[in-house]
């Protein structure tokens, strides 16, 4: 099946008139039909688009074409020049900074403007740290949904609840170059 996916994907990107240096297909879960398609191309700006929007649309379109050709439901992850991996690494560094700030300041940190997928990644990343003093939860509905990051210590939990007024700091998700993560 990997060879069939590779052939269809290669034809798909050729029809888009993109210069493809390398394309590989890796099965991530055979039972659930999840495949990773990795592409190396000098045309990455065209394929990724602003904030990865073109990449998401391309991934969706290629998924539907593959499902129609192969006749089974399939889920693909489309990685172009390690864009998603570097985006995740940048996001996790950002989260580490917010965690550090919450630990130093004892302030709740509110992260707004996260997609539901990014909130899920953040909850998972923080829970994987196995820090009992670090808690996350989401509030709000729809586009107003926010992720809250709260740090408390075991010894000072009564101080946190009763003596120190709850302070929060709202942080917009914008990186150094002014582009949202």
List keywords for this structure.
44% helix, 2 domains, 6 helices, GMP Synthetase, Chain A, domain 3, 181 residues, Ribosomal Protein S8, Chain: A, domain 1, alpha/beta, elongated
Per DSSP E runs of 2 or more residues, the count of β-strands stands at: 7
- What is the highest CATH level, the class of the largest domain? Alpha Beta
CATH fold type of the largest domain:
Ribosomal Protein S8, Chain: A, domain 1
Distance between the termini: 34 Å
User: How many separate domains?
Assistant: 2
Structural class: alpha/beta
Low-confidence stretches: 156-165, 177-181
User: What's the helix-strand series?
Assistant: HEEHHEHEHEEHE
Relative helix content? 40-55%
Query: Strand fraction band?
Result: 15-25%
Find the CATH superfamily of the largest domain. R3H-like domain
Question: Overview of this structure, please?
Answer:
It is a single chain. The chain is α/β, with parallel strands linked by helices and 181 residues long. It has two domains: 2-81, 2-Layer Sandwich (GMP Synthetase, Chain A, domain 3); 87-171, R3H-like domain (Ribosomal Protein S8, Chain: A, domain 1, 2-Layer Sandwich), CATH 3.30.1370. Helices cover 44% and strands 23% of the residues. It has helices at 2-15, 44-48, 53-70, 83-105, 116-128, 157-163, and strands at 22-29, 34-40, 75-80, 108-111, 134-139, 146-151, 168-171. Helix 1 (2-15) packs across helix 3. The model is unreliable at 156-165 and 177-181 (pLDDT under 50).
